[in-house]
Specification:
The protein has 16 helices and 15 strands. The strands form three sheets. A ten-stranded mixed sheet has the order 11-10-9-8-7-6-12-13-14-15. Helix 2 packs across helix 3, helix 4 runs parallel beside helix 5 and helix 6 packs parallel to helix 8. One iron/sulfur cluster (SF4) binds next to helix 13 and helix 15. The site of one iron/sulfur cluster (SF4) has 8 residues, from helix 14.
Length: 482
């Protein structure tokens, strides 16, 4: 028997978990999940006691009843899978995407104006980074067309392109949106590509004609909404202080009833006093009829009164777990539940993502401000500190490289020993900037939370892998909501 490594073996980098009475490990260098049989488990248990040479390990396994040649084969197999490593072995580095990474998605901020005055808004609230003074408030057609041409030209061999319309309140510039949809379809078709669309809205300006247009053009809709009337009217209010729920509710019902081509999703921002996740979910999913509902704690510098404190975050996590259990029960029956926080993590797990960067910002996705400035994503539009170029002159490659180098997982010291880094990669660049003043800083305030939540989703994955693997396949192609 020839050892595959000259140095003693030790455990590789993984997170072990149990589900459905089976044992799995999430292998960090690969971002992949493996089920362990009894023999593999016995081998890992031995190495958990102390590092061992090849010979020692074979002997230890033989002493426990294994056939020596099978033990030898197993060691080789686990070594190549990196479940065990030897002294000099280093984790496979996550490579950087190429500098000319093609563009796939454009977020067009077609206006920076809004008819509501949500105090926690990252665009207008206390922690805003945008500097829109003196810049256009509404995107014009020329800028929008140039942006579409830019997307098509920069998309390389990608055939399926995506445009998201964003604001401010997106529908305050609906006439432009209509024009862009027609123009983008023609431009993409002329280049032998396809394009699909989505938008985010507060739903206050929806009309039957707008809903019909969205449906006819299969435009995906995400509604920013915080829950039933008592919660929705705490912060997403008009400038007069009047709540928005009564305006939104009938429009939403009309949207959900009449948008025939795409499912409607809700995105909830959790803030101080708006943390009743289960009640919010029930209202949005069951009472209003959203297809999916996703939750995110408010982005903030840590100083704001609307921020969620640690106790409230723990309660949020408890409620996430309650909904996750429901999600699993639905999944075992082959039904979709609608809690998108689980769906999105499961999707990333099944796709085996191993991220060099937390998201596509500045890579396959960029944002465009009403005046045509290019930014890493919609959250950086109109922020002078984060402009990556202009639609008329293209991306400033030096600025883009600097942004991507800062955000690369390899440059985040605190993340190097974290098992969840293939999925998290340090977290949202914008959140990091607001919290730490550096887009490349790891979002360390959420680490325990992220690890706890990912462990929950891994266990759900494990149960489904054992009991309803076909259901998991539904998530193989799914893209995360942006
Ligand atoms: S930010 Fe925290 S949870 Fe995310 S990869 Fe880094 S250390 Fe891990
Ligand atoms: S995760 Fe953050 S940086 Fe990335 S696209 Fe979303 S908001 Fe932008």
């Amino acid at each position: 028997m020839k050892p595959v490594a000259s140095q003693p073996y030790r455990l590789g980098e993984f997170h072990a978990f149990e589900a459905a009475s089976r044992r799995f490990l999430y292998l960090v260098p690969a971002g992949a999940i493996f089920e362990m049989d009894g023999a593999a488990q016995a081998l890992l248990d031995r190495l958990a006691e102390r590092p061992m040479t090849h010979h020692e390990l074979v002997e230890a396994l033989a002493a426990a009843g294994s056939d020596p040649s099978e033990a030898d084969e197993l060691i080789t197999e686990l070594y190549h899978a990196q479940e065990i490593v030897s002294g000099g072995t280093v984790a496979v580095p996550v490579s950087s995407p190429p500098a000319d990474f093609p563009l796939q998605s454009l977020v067009l901020n077609i206006t920076n104006q809004c008819n509501l005055a949500c105090t926690y808004c990252y665009e207008f609230g206390a922690d805003k980074i945008a500097t829109p003074q003196g810049k256009p408030k509404y995107m014009d057609l020329e800028t929008a067309k140039a942006s579409v041409d830019f997307l098509v030209a920069e998309s390389g061999r990608r055939r399926a392109l995506h445009i998201t319309f964003f604001g401010g309140e997106t529908l305050m510039n609906f006439p432009l949106l209509k024009e862009v949809v027609g123009y983008a379809k023609s431009a993409a078709a002329a280049a032998g590509k396809s394009v699909d669309f989505s938008l985010t809205t507060n739903a206050t300006l929806l009309t039957p004609a707008i809903i019909e247009f969205l449906s006819e053009n299969a435009i995906g809709v995400t509604v920013s909404m915080d829950g039933p009337a008592d919660l929705q009217d705490k912060r997403p209010v008009y400038k007069s202080g009047k709540g928005s729920y009564a305006v939104i509710e009938p429009r939403l019902r009309a949207l959900i009833a009449n948008h025939r081509t795409r499912a409607i999703t809700a995105r909830v921002t959790l803030t101080d006093g708006v943390t009743d996740v289960v009640r919010i979910f029930r209202h949005l999913k069951d009472d209003l009829g959203f297809h999916e509902v996703g939750f995110a704690p408010v982005t903030n510098s840590g100083q704001q009164a609307y921020a969620i404190d640690d106790d409230a975050m723990d309660k949020v996590l408890e409620q996430f777990h309650a909904l996750a259990e429901e999600w699993l029960a639905f999944a075992l029956r082959g039904e979709m539940h609608g809690f998108s926080n689980v769906s999105e993590t499961i999707s990333e797990l099944i796709q085996g993502v191993n991220k060099s960067h937390p998201c596509g910002a500045g890579l396959g996705l960029v944002g465009v401000s009403p005046g045509g400035d290019i930014s890493p994503c919609h959250r950086f539009t109109d922020a002078d500190t984060h402009t990556l170029g202009h639609i008329s002159t293209g991306i400033d490659r030096a600025k883009q490289s600097d942004f991507l180098a800062r955000g690369h997982i390899g440059s985040k010291y605190d993340c190097q020993t974290c098992w969840v880094r293939p999925l998290c990669a340090g977290g949202c660049h914008h959140e990091a900037f607001v919290r730490y003043g550096d887009t490349g800083h790891a979002n360390l305030h959420y680490c325990d939370w992220i690890r706890g939540w990912t462990d929950t989703c891994l266990k759900i994955y494990g149960v489904l892998a054992a009991r309803n693997p076909e259901f998991l396949e539904r998530f193989a192609q799914r893209k995360a909501l942006s």
